[in-house]
Design goal:
By secondary structure, this protein is an alpha/beta fold. It is built from eleven helices and twelve strands. It has two domains: 180 residues, Isopropylmalate Dehydrogenase (3-Layer(aba) Sandwich); 156 residues, Isopropylmalate Dehydrogenase. A hairpin with a 2-residue loop joins β11 and β12. The chain binds nicotinamide-adenine-dinucleotide and manganese (II) ion (MN). Its cofactor is Mg(2+).
């Protein structure tokens, strides 16, 4: 049997309502899996900042680094006007733990009228987000510039991860999860027709990484990002795994989340070498906090996704199946999905199916 130590970082707003649900689903996994959990409660977020002066206390980072196998992160509120000294703890965590990939599955239930089952694998350390900007004056007025940095190393490891994810998804399908996809497919996204050096390097490096013999069974295609957006909205069922540099990945993954009805359904994971943080895509939802009606499914799926990256595919598959069964039946749905169920009722229904 294996014991996993999981850091729990609820953060702000509904983060505090959904992270306990994530803990409960992990605790409710069948004993036959031989998986045990120990949980460590950790602080981060705007409330933490107001209390302690740090949005991401050093202690949180240290415990995650030295003492945890993975973590669940809820959501944090950002002040509407910039507050001195405050910056997003999740962005800082990605840097400090070198979580170089952001992975976002977007999936409807199998029997949906228009089924979708894709995952966007976004490079998370470079591209325009290195934030090397400058502004200077010219006789015609100000000019601002930003560095777009693409490296062979980062492109290669993100494409390799996309290949691994494609293989793993195929394995989970083969184990009996119904799927709209026949075989594993990775779509490389870029704009190398215009940015021949930066995106050109991403494209060439990704292709090379995916040409590795261990991805022999994975079909590889490429697509220019703007036409990709068109196809993503017209024909989303065509995608399995999408790999993209940071900026395109950010935009595509938010856009794709809109395809499935509610932010309350969409999970993500921030993944590095041997460490993963599951994180629902939604924010702290101040408009519904405290009412007990937040949809816990994004968090439950994030817990499953974290488990996938900790090599616990079977446990992950059980959570996905229980969530899908709840959604397919459609009797106990939270208000964001048009239902009347409270968070607690949704959680209990899913735990019952586990
Ligand atoms: P949001 O995701 O919090 O909410 C958008 C809308 O979706 C709201 O109407 C909300 O009620 C609804 N919603 C979100 N999650 C839901 C769930 N689980 N169940 C039911 N309904 C849900 O985005 P926002 O309103 O733009 O931002 C609110 C705060 O969250 C801001 O302070 C913002 O900075 C922060 N935020 C944080 C993250 C993060 O931590 N990763 C992401 C986005 C926004
Ligand atoms: Mn985004």
């Amino acid at each position: 049997s294996r014991t996993l130590r999981i850091g729990l970082i609820p953060g702000d707003g509904i983060g505090k309502e959904v992270i306990p649900a994530g803990r409960r689903i992990l605790e409710a996994l069948p004993a036959s899996l031989g998986l045990k959990f120990e949980f460590v409660n950790l602080q981060a977020g705007f409330e933490t900042f107001e209390k302690t002066g740090a949005a991401l206390p050093d202690e949180t980072v240290q415990i995650l680094k030295s003492d945890c196998d993975g973590a669940l992160f809820g959501a944090v509120s950002s002040p509407t006007t910039p507050v001195k000294g405050y910056s997003s703890p999740i962005v800082a965590l990605r840097k400090k733990l070198d979580l170089y990939a952001n992975v976002r599955p977007v999936k409807t239930v199998f029997n949906a009228p228009k089924p979708i089952d894709m995952v966007i694998v976004r490079e998370n350390t470079e591209d325009l987000y290195v934030k090397e900007e400058k502004t200077y004056d010219t006789p015609e007025g100000k000019v601002a510039e930003a560095i777009k940095r693409i490296s062979q190393r980062a492109s290669s490891r993100i494409a390799t991860m996309a290949g691994e994810i494609a293989l793993r998804r195929q394995k989970i399908r083969a184990a009996g999860s119904p799927s709209i996809h026949k075989g594993p497919l990775v779509t490389i996204t870029h704009k190398s027709n215009v940015l021949s050096q930066t995106d050109g390097l991403f494209r060439a490096t990704s292709k090379e990484a995916l040409a590795n013999p261990r991805f022999l069974s994975v079909a590889v295609e490429e697509q220019i990002v703007d036409s990709m957006v068109y196809k993503l909205f017209r024909q989303p069922e065509a995608y399995d795994v999408i790999v993209a540099p940071n900026l395109y990945g950010d935009i595509l993954s938010d856009g794709a989340a809109a395809l499935v009805g509610s932010l309350g359904l969409v999970p993500s994971a921030n993944v590095g070498e041997g460490f993963a943080i599951g994180e629902p895509c939604h924010g702290s939802a101040p408009d519904i906090m405290g009412q007990g009606i937040a949809n816990p499914i994004a968090t439950l799926r994030s817990a499953a996704l974290m488990l996938e990256f900790l090599n616990e595919e079977e446990a992950a598959a059980k959570i996905y199946a229980a969530v899908d069964a709840n959604l397919s039946e459609g009797k106990l749905l939270s208000p964001d999905l048009g239902g009347k169920a409270k968070t607690e009722e949704v959680v209990q229904d899913i735990l019952r199916r586990l």
